[in-house]
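Hello forum,

I keep getting stuck at the same step: I have a sequence, I want structure tokens, and every attempt I make locally crashes halfway through. Rather than fight my setup again tonight, could one of you with a working pipeline run this one for me? It's a single chain of 330 residues.
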Amino acid sequence: MSDPIVQAKGLHKSFTYQKRSKGLRSWLKADYATIEAVKKIDLTINPGETVAFVGPNGAGKSTTIKMLSGILAPTGGHIRVCGLDPLKQRRELSYKIGCVFGQRSQLLPNLPLRDSLELFGKMYDLDQATIDKRIEELSDIFALHSTIEQPVRQLSLGQRMRGEIAASLMHKPTIVFLDEPTIGLDVVAKRSLRETLNNLNKSEGTTIFLTSHDTGDIEALAERTIVIDHGTIIVDESTDHLRKKFLNKKHLQIDFATKPEKHALADVEIRIQGNTLNATIDMTKHDINEVLHALLKLGIVEDIQIQEESLEEVILSIYESTGKKDESAQ
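Reply #2:
Ran it on my machine without issues. Output:
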């Protein structure tokens, strides 16, 4: 079995800052406070995995990525990424990892995208023949042929983001860290980028570690989901298992030929608008077949859709369940 790509043990990061005080005391003695951004987390990621690292703002996601990539020094704990210490061997590690931060561009805005890709190739000591071949490969994977000669500033956000990720992959890294890769993209651009990343993982075996607030990214890209809150990992499950474990509701929409008749179903949340009935079914209280059988009697059905909870709802359920556990422990 291959060694883990990422191995972190007791990873910890705290920040100390000076508190603002009023009055004479602020002139005589400074007061300091400490924030624990990451609290001794353990993390193992194996080659070829696609992992989503999710949580609310301030949970410690970006801080963790910055420590794993060598940008930030941990306050404590042990890290190995691709067999290297990110802080002590940052230069060597840079040849094995790729990083993309969704709100920060690493491309040259006034020059053609090709120039940025060539620059990245030179930075990683690739010869020109290898650079040309890699640009061609990435242009195929990311559909860059029509835009690669355009100045980066003229590209759409979706085109630029594909270019950003392509640049981070010029040296064929073992793992790529993606921090909010689809932020600001429209629906079509998001779908295109997700499909591209999935193809990349399958064709080149690149390990993908991403943070995102978009549950669509997680569902489409990640086989495994790690949920972090207040600097602590609270769940680490396969994405499918996570959905099944916390999936308690199904959403049902029925379109009738005419406005449906009144219903007499207790404990089922039902909303009727025109000829459409929407119901939310708690699977811990009801059998969906029985509820569906009763609702289909309300009129002539033209269409029906059954949807599971979104991953966003699932993650909210996780926060609520862990919050209840915390309260009961006090």
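The chain has two domains: 46-74+85-244, 248-308. If your local run keeps crashing, start a new thread with the error log.
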